[in-house]
Structure formats: C-alpha cells, structure tokens
Amino acid sequence: MKLKQSEALFERSKQIVPGGVHSPVRAFRGVGGVPPFMQSASDVWLNDVDGNSYIDYCMSWGPLLFGHQDREVQQAVQEALARGWSYGTAEPYSLELAELITQELPWVEKIRFVNSGTEAVISALRVARAATGRDKILKFEGCYHGHGDSLLVKAGSGLAEMASPDSAGVPVSVASDTIVVELNQEEALEKVFQRQGHQIAAVILEPLPANCGLLIQREEFLKKVASLSRKSGSLLIFDEVISGFRVAFGGMAEKIGIQPDLVTFGKVIGGGFPVGAYGGRADLMDWVAPCGPVYQAGTLSANPVAMTAGVAMLKKLKRENPYSALEKKTKELACQLEEVAQQEGFPMKVQSFSSLFWIVFGEMDTPDFVVRTPQQTPKKSKEVYSQVFHSLLENGIYLAPSAYEVSFLSTAHRPEHQEKLVKVMRQAIRKVMQK
Length: 435
Known about the structure:
- By secondary structure, this protein is an alpha/beta fold.
- It has 2 domains: 4-65 and 322-433, Aspartate Aminotransferase, domain 1 (Alpha-Beta Complex), CATH 3.90.1150.10; 71-320, 3-Layer(aba) Sandwich (Aspartate Aminotransferase, domain 2).
- The protein contains 13 helices and 16 strands.
- Helix 2 (71-83) packs antiparallel against helix 10 (304-320) and helix 12 crosses helix 13.
- The protein starts with a helix and ends with a helix.
C-alpha cells in the first residue's frame, strides 16, 4: 500500500492546521503512522487519494447504518440542495424531523436542534442547572460528552468528588463543579449522593459508553444511577449521541426501559451530516429561550439539508427496522474473530452490543469477563492494537484508528466483507506473534 499523496497532504496540512487534522483521532496518534486522506466513499468502501480502497468499519463514527451514500438519503439531500442549502430562518424541515422524533419517543416531549453533540450536551447541562437551581454535575470516568469545559475533567487523586481539569485551558474553578465517579460502582455512587446529592443538578451518562472502549454496563447499575438521581432531585441526562437510533430506534432508553429527563442526540439524526439535538420533558425544555431564561442559540442550527437527510434516515430506520439483523450479524462477526484468535493462541476479546464492536487485546480474568471500566482494559491492548490496525489497513480494512474507539457495522456490510476482516485478522495476529 502506497500513501505518497497522503503523506504529502499531511505534511502540508501540519503547516497550517494543528496536528494536521480537525479532530485529534484523525492524526493517528493512537496507532502511529500517516493517516490516509480519503477522497470518496460509497457502500462500505473508503477510497483515498492514492487509489487505495478500504472496507470501512468506522462508518463516520456510527451514523451511517445503511452505508455510505445510501440512495434514499442521497435523493432527499439532492432535492434539498435544489431548494437551497442555508436559510438562517424558520423552515418546515426541522419541524418534520422534530415531530418524527417526539411522536416516537415519549420521553422527548420537546426538542431543540443544534450543530454538534458537544453543543447539545452543553445546552442540556445549562437547562439542568437552571431548572434545579443547583451547580454541580456528576459524570462517570470513561464516558465522553464532548469538549465542553465542565466535562473535560478527571477524577483527582483524593475523593471521587475532587475532580481536576483533563485539558489545558479548563479552569480548576470549572472542574470543581463536576463530580467524577467510576462506572460500575454502586457503592461509590451511593456515597457521593449521600454527601452531595442535594447539590447535584444532573447526572450525565452514556448508557452505552463507547468512547473509551465499548464499556457495556449492567442494567442493575444503570437502574441504580436513575434511582439515586430521582431520589436526590437531580436530573438524569442520557448522552445518546452515539447510541441514539443506532442500537434501537429509541436508543438505549428503549433497550433498558429507563426514561431520562433530558437526552442528547447527534450523528444519526442528520443522516451523517453535522447535527446535534437535546430534548426531554416539556417543562424542562420550556426553560430554553425564547420561552424561558436559558439562553441558547445557533445561527445555522437546523440546517435544511441536514434536517431533510435526518428525516429520510429516520423514516427508513423506522420502516426497515434493521436492528435485530444488525445485532445478529455483529455477534457472528465477534464470535468469528474470537475463534480465529483462540485457534492462533492469541489473547483477544471482541465485545459487542447491537451493531457496535470493540476489539481488546490481552489476558482476561475469565473467558466471559466483560470490560466495564477503563481500568479493566489490559495495558498491552493499545500497543498490540496499533500493530494489528496497521496490518489490517495494509490489507484494505479500516477500523477506528484508536484502541479505545469502537467500530460499527451497517446493512451494507455483506458476508464477503466480514469474511475479509476475519481472514486478514488471522494474518495480522500471526504477524504480531512473529515479532
């Protein structure tokens, strides 16, 4: 595989763009090497500027459940473009998408569209603080909620509530209003609520953490989070930017039967276009301007092209209901990959949920052990993953370029694509074992 043009573009980009990229993971810092510069995509394929093609298991980080350039969504977008692509005014397309979502999801009585998941989370937290009159937010280590200041924090070396900034530029004073608790730890969570429950405006959680590995949580833990939140008067916010409409039409809230007070969406609801949303109980959403005193605005929020793409996407998801078939296909792929590793005597586990999967390298305590917290990820996984990743890339397979990010299947992935991944994985494992 040659990357001559990608290398040249990357060098040019680094001169004028921080790190040469517009989002950190794209720089391949987690796996090393030069990122291929993609110039087109269709079906399950990514095509780079050097003429290489890859079977894509990243799917634009999740939203493309029907693969690249789905014809139904594409046709809707072309019709939208013919009408005009930016109005900055009220328009009917966002109303259609809002009605579609609120009619199908009882816990979303009102919704506001924004331009990203980060923006949705920041806005939802502001609503929670205003509605409760409290300042503190509780989040969980291993859950990612975008790059808002109050969420770029980590647990300190002392008590769980002693948070510290996890990024330069985040003031300690901002971090001090965020409490960080480990996932899967009911006892620690209870202690925090005993001490500070009356100060917590909201508990925000990825009900399916998928940004620090696929950390599948026990339903008992998720129900405990909901119970303690409600008992203390704190609002429960589900960050379903990845899982919303991806694991089920109603996301994880539908899968586990817990209705959040507020929820954030992204990715899927724009059919792959940049979009986000926050919604929930009507009495909470009525705090948002111009109805209420919580200010939030977006000059180009509810872009008509993105809204039209989202309507087409969600209508197709509702009509075709691909979720059970995708889950079955993903489980089969996970089993096939694990079987290859077992045959080669190589320690590897593939955790899957719905149409998401995550490959972990290293010894587990037991064969059925599930990694539920960042601390449980084997230390060697990152190093081994980078070696396997490049071996797969050289053979036309594109996985998430980070050991801690997840991969996705779409309806466009057919048996031959899965067979190719399994075959190339065997070759990659053998190559790593020879070193």
